[in-house]
Amino acid sequence: MSATHTVINQVPLLVDHDVADDPALLEGLRREGAGWAEPGLRELGRLAGTARAQEWARLANENEPVLRTHDRYGHRVDEVEYHPAYHELMTVAVANGLHAAPWRDPRPGAHVARAARFHTWSQVEGGHGCPISMTYAAVPALRHAPDLAARFEPLLAATAYDPVLAVPDTKPGLTAGMSMTEKQGGSDVRANATRALPQPDGSYLLTGHKWFTSAPMCDVFLVLAQAPGGLSCFLLPRVLPDGTRNRMHLQRLKDKLGNRANASSEVEYDEALAWPVGEEGHGVRTIIQMVNMTRLDCVIGGAAGMRAALVQAVHHTNHRSAFGQLLADAPLMRNVLADLTVESQAATTLALRLAGATDRAFAGDEAEAAFRRLGLAVGKYWICKRTPAHVAEALECLGGNGYVEESGMPRLYREAPLNSIWEGSGNVAALDVLRAMGSVGADALLAEVDLAAGADRRLDDALARLRKDLAALSDPDAAQAGARRLVERMALVLQGSLLVRHGSQAVADAFCASRLDGDWGVAFGTLPSGVDTGAILERVQVG
């Protein structure tokens, strides 16, 4: 009998490589003051590239969380069961400080080091990054209540992951969630209807319904509710000090497009006990610090998704032949891969710069704080918008193989839109840029771009056009209607400046020739002639 299943021209598995071996990532790590973290980052990168870590990701997504509302006797238990692989992912993330290392060890570059690790480990599996990110973000908001911070911050910053439900003070480490969104309001949290009734001992009883609470198995949550003095922020534990369950009832888990390994739920509070964080009526002002920290992770996560998809595309085309040649040697495919590389490296470079600004802002640098305020809003909008298109093009490089679940690309594709929605969709992010310019102005961002003045004519011309756009902002309605276009220009000019100053010459030239000079098509793979695709693609070889 003839053999009909001889396997030829198939791509070997991409395993046992260093996921952190990314020039843009490593250069940013060193440049932003965290070169000391490189050995640990490379160790995490090697783990991320193993077959074992990839198997954890597969199992965590194929065996989705399951809600158990009651036990066999009818008692409410409100528990979410996860596959053990999910806990393996969480254990590595917490042990490597992705959730809180800068708060435990606030040395210079701590936020950059943590951003690089988050970027690397997120490429294994993005869903479990949600509770990791929220725990990281909860600490600065919690500091509005010094007594609560003194009690809980050491546990939030601990490097022990313990999924067992228990009194927070008795656990070796904690994770934190955030509960803001309600069905009638969405991003408009001021429309929240959950009520907070003050008690004689200073605590509050919360009653209401939250429409979207991710990672409901966290130990503590920051919750927005209407107190007598207005919308306020509260810390709500799942287990009370006496060991009883708080009256936080999980109604159902959301059936989401992606992010399948992570549970997101509807929650009902029925006189749930909570403690105030910050003053009554200042809930948005308090929790916005948490929101801004998670927005940084949206930027990092978007850049990580691009990198993960790009690496798979390059690996596939380096091993797959068609029409008598390797796909990676075909001029048109090289254009596509180079274009995807430029986008990925621009995103990673901006993410690391924003992490560096975070370090310096927490150290008291007011100029960096102003840059971070505006740059973070710009980066959140643009990088998260670019990720879905980028991942889709990378998936297409694998052809039909990329459309099959076993490739891992569909999971990346389903995950890609999440960061653009989380912590404010595109319109919310664009409007936040306008608010940021109203509070801190645009001078800090323009000063950052000006550091590259004279280095590239195309960048200089784009900056001049942007200054005219900013000077023309007068009519609020017109500014809002054109906010997306304005934010896009701000993002491209900022990325261009960073690449001209810090990136490879080939990447910077391709970026300016395409994104800033107008010689670029709508789809990826339309870089203009003369771009050094070979030099660009040298920066994305793996294995």
UniProtKB/TrEMBL annotation:
GO molecular function terms noted in the UniProt entry: acyl-CoA dehydrogenase activity
Name of protein: DNA alkylation response protein
Record SUPFAM superfamilies: Acyl-CoA dehydrogenase C-terminal domain-like, Acyl-CoA dehydrogenase NM domain-like
Keyword presence, Flavoprotein: yes
Superkingdom of source: Bacteria
Cofactor(s) named in the record: FAD
InterPro entries hit by this protein: Acyl-CoA_dehydrogenase-like, Acyl-CoA_DH_CS, Acyl-CoA_Oxase/DH_mid-dom, AcylCo_DH-like_C, AcylCo_DH/oxidase_C, AcylCoA_DH/oxidase_NM_dom_sf, AidB_N
Residue ranges occupied by any Adaptive response protein AidB N-terminal domain in the UniProt entry: 9-163
Pfam families the UniProt entry points to: Acyl-CoA_dh_1, Acyl-CoA_dh_M, AidB_N
PROSITE patterns found in the cross-reference section: ACYL_COA_DH_2
Domain Acyl-CoA dehydrogenase/oxidase C-terminal residues, every copy: 281-437
Species of the source: Actinophytocola xinjiangensis
Domain Acyl-CoA oxidase/dehydrogenase middle: 178-271
Family membership: Belongs to the acyl-CoA dehydrogenase family.
Keywords: FAD, Flavoprotein, Oxidoreductase
